[in-house]
Fold:
Amino acid sequence: MKVDVTYSCGHVGEIEVYGERSKREWMIRRASEGICEECQLKQDLARIEELKTEQEALGLPELTGSDKVYVRKGGYVHRKTFLAAMENFIAMCAGTEGGRMAVCRELKPFGSNDEQRAYYAKKNVQMAKAIKEAMLRITSASYWNSLMVVEQDMIDFTRLLSDYYSENKSLIDQMIKAAESGDGTPVEDPIITAEPDDPKTTSVAEIVVTEECVRLYSPKDDTIIEAARKLRMQWLKSYWGLSKTVRTGDMMERAREVIATLLSRGIPVKADRELIADAIAGKYEPYTPRWVTARGDSLIVWLDGNDDLYYSAKKLKGAEYDGGCFRVPLTSWREVADFARFNNYKISDKAEASMERAKEEEHQRMAVGTVKVKAPDKRTEKDTLKDLLNSSTEVLDDLKDS
Structure:
């Protein structure tokens, strides 16, 4: 049922309540303690301007890519929390315990003496500052809104920095090297925006690549949404994502393909400079749904909607249809290999290993089942006659007269 409530700001509004009487009363009381939607919007916009001014004074760029107020507000709030956590982390690295922390897996902390601990502390400070500089170049409000940082939780924060380093190792190492050289040589910003030849939208799609996913951040835009769905991406709370599976192949290849597709559809793309260059030059292997993978003691032959392919796969010995694919016993590995070769299929590493194992087992069974045949007697008639002449001349008992 709908009831009128008076909010703490003095405005009256309508809310919907349900459940038992005590629950309805609680819902009304809770709503009356808050402010109306209009006042909340004004409050959020004022908070956004406050945080924006505060962070611009620190030399940080304006967050872009989303028209949603809660996303923009969350982006600025989380970036502020990140700054505070990073300053705290750098101070800890520079302190007496700095040598007992590790920003990345490659850096081995736990020095056995003060000199070693000081060395690792210095390395951690350098790496933390480089990661901070690189991350603050990201201007996507959706990215920062999805970045959950707890200022006091240094374990999770260290893990966040470690993951970012592993995904952007070459950039961070380059920035550290430039800082160590002290020659003042600026590190070229690896993130650029590429404009399509025939723009269909002014919205920019920002691409971020991890080991497990290609992420697309952007404001709500029908042209981008259509392209993302065409690329088999899924909406994952704050971004469109193409998650890694056995059949996606290398995620850098998929990122290049995503960038090339977006540009061809008239969508501006913000991404790594080298990725964009490779995408424009067509230096990537297009995605294919035609894969042979392995599951247990079976080979999985995936289909792509082609009827001829379906009937060809159906003829494989022991093949059973399993919703979008055929499950084939390992004993039919030869047929599957021929099928894959004839129909331009890719074979996963696990499937290759399974087929090789089946091949070895087949050879072993053949070796065990081999029957040894006695070689024919090559003796001549002369040898046989010689044996008769040399045999005993004694009469056998059966031939003697009784």
Observations:
- The domain at 192-281 is CATH 3.30.70 (Alpha-Beta Plaits).
- Residues 105-112 have pLDDT under 50 and may be disordered.
